[in-house]
Amino acid sequence: MSWTAKKLVDQLITVVEPSRVKIDASDLEYYGKDWSSGATPNPSAIVFPKSINEVQGLVGLANKLNFPLVPSGGRTGLSGGAVASEREVVVSFDRMNKILKFDKVDNLVTCQPGVITGDLKKFAESEGLFYPVDFASAGASQLGGNVATNAGGINVLRYGMTRDWVEGMKVITGRGELLDLNRGLKKNATGFDFRHLFIGSEGTLGFIVELTLELISPPEEPTVMLLGLQKIENTVKTLAVFKEKLSLTAFEFFSGTAMQKVIKSNELSDPFGRIYPFYALVEFENNNKDQLDVASVLFEKCIKSGYAVEGVVSQNQSQAKSLWKFREGITESIADYNPFKSDVSCRISKIPTFLQELEKISSVFSRQFEVVLFGHLGDGNIHINLLQPFQMDSQEFREECKKISKLIFESVQSLGGSISAEHGIGLIKKPYLSYSRDEAELNYMRGVKRLFDPENIMNPGKLVDI
Ligand code: MLT
Ligand code: ZN
Q1: Which of the chain's termini has less CB crowding within 10 Å, N or C?
Q2: Strands 99-103 vs 69-72: parallel, antiparallel or unpaired
Q3: Burial of 275 (0-12, 13-18, 19+ CB in 10 A)
Q4: Which pLDDT value is given to residue 71?
Q5: 362 close to ligand 1 (CB < 6 Angstrom)
Q6: Ligand 1 mean position to 188 CA, how many Å?
């Protein structure tokens, strides 16, 4: 251990017990990165606080000795928001993972930030309730990280983003102060709601140390339809048909390239016996028989209009889950190709124009790279994934992808969309933030950061610089 590393550890163990400070190479590697690729992990230490007091102690120490801190949840982020590549101290919430309190009258659950999303969903179920935020990484992502990135996922169309479920929150600001925000109130008209500044702030303003989230009554068991489509524009036309008459819980789309990868890596059988250029996955709550009848009429309409070629519909929950596998398995099935990810959004009314422009852009780059498209079309969110050819060097691949990204972002900007719908800005999207936020707005963002974290100890280098 170098002298400086020893000095740092000596300081950290004045706040947390020695067994909760790690500097082994394997821990530094594991906790120094998230699911994004590109940056090399290089933290100086990993600490595992067990209480709000300890987090506050760490922030005090970091301000005094001027070392940077990186908040770390399940590290399932895809924009490098939890990467520590500049000798930062990583603060992991793995040991603050308890559900603290459930209030049956208010349907509010109070959790430590390290609770895994899937565990909260199971807890809600055990109380006969439902936590509606859901995504493929729910088995690994932590609530604090979800809130820090305002995580979205597959149910946003019906239930909104993580922001919509946060009723209260305790934070330790970058100055080291404890704030108790909103305290579970439904109505509270007392000025600035700082809770919403911390949601989506990607750990740049302080640490989220406790959360109060709302649970609701569970939906009826959903029915899922999978449709095979010939053209990308038919995805939006199909959405319009279904949205008009049914209350959808999800409307996802994915390309034939995505389907091929999922089938191959999971050894699934092809639901249609042939690969379509595009697929739409429609989910709706099946609360009465009428819904199913309405859905079959809408399906027929899509077939007659030529929007869809064929489709399958789930008859029970196990079949519904099997159909979801084709969509939810995509990220994992392309992980080995070091994908370059864009996660953009537009208003639904602009999506047809965006898809046309995307087709034009991709007619050039698809000769160079395999393109896997998918996303939450129902809420205007498209994920564009470029796969690294095995023979191409990583550096060269990233440089080429950046050029393509610029074209995509220019198109998104011209349509008033967002360059990051749900993955966040982190390290990877930071150079492009001005495509979605103008200079005046960026200046206010910097001002907010300076206010909460004047010494710039909280996740420096991510989102905005001060
Ligand atoms: C998804 O929709 O599956 C997630 O946003 C992950 C991804 O884009 O890879
Ligand atoms: Zn997504």
Answers
A1: N
A2: unpaired
A3: middle
A4: 98
A5: no
A6: 34
Buried b (16+ CB within 10 A) or exposed e, 78-96: bbbbbbbbeebbbbbbbbb
* Euclidean distance between the first and the last CA atom of the chain, given in angstroms as a whole number: 32
Residue 20, ligand 1, Cβ within 6 A: no
Ligand 1 center to 13 CA (angstroms): 38
C-alpha–C-alpha distance, residues 202 and 425, integer Å: 8
User: Could you tell me the sign of the dihedral formed by the alpha carbons of 141, 83, 380, 352, in that order?
Assistant: negative
Cα 202 to Cα 430: distance, rounded to the nearest angstrom: 12
Q: What pLDDT is attached to residue 2?
A: 55
Q: How far is CA 68 from the centre of its chain?
A: 24
User: Which strand (E) or helix (H) includes residue 159?
Assistant: helix 156-159
CB 424 within 8 A of CB 149: yes
Answer whether 331 contacts ligand 1 (Cβ < 6 A): yes
pLDDT at 80 over 90: yes
- Spatial contact of 100 and 184, defined as CB atoms under 8 Å apart: no
- Looking from the CA of residue 383, the nearest atom of ligand 1 is 8
Q: What is the mean pLDDT of residues 286-304?
A: 92
**For 174-318, where are the E strands, in sequence order?**
178-181, 206-214, 222-229, 248-255, 278-285, 310-313
**Mean local confidence (pLDDT), 89-116:** 98
Cα-trace Rg, the chain: 23
Q: Whose CA is nearest to atom 9 of ligand 1?
A: 331
What is the reported pLDDT for 174?
A: 98
Ligand 2 centre distance from Cα of residue 382 (Å): 8
Q: What pLDDT, on a 0 to 100 scale, did the predictor assign at position 51?
A: 98
Please give the DSSP secondary-structure letter assigned to residue 269.
P
pLDDT exceeds cutoff 80 at 289: no
Chain-wide mean pLDDT for the chain? 96
Q: What is the pLDDT of residue 3?
A: 54
332 CB under 6 A from ligand 1?
no
Phi and psi angles of residue 278, each rounded to the nearest 5 degrees, phi first: -145, 155
Residue 1: per-residue pLDDT: 52
pLDDT in tens, 242-279: 999 999 999 999 999 999 999 999 999 999 999 999 99
Shortest-distance Cα residue to atom 6 of ligand 1: 331
State if residue 136 touches ligand 1 by the CB under 6 angstroms criterion. yes
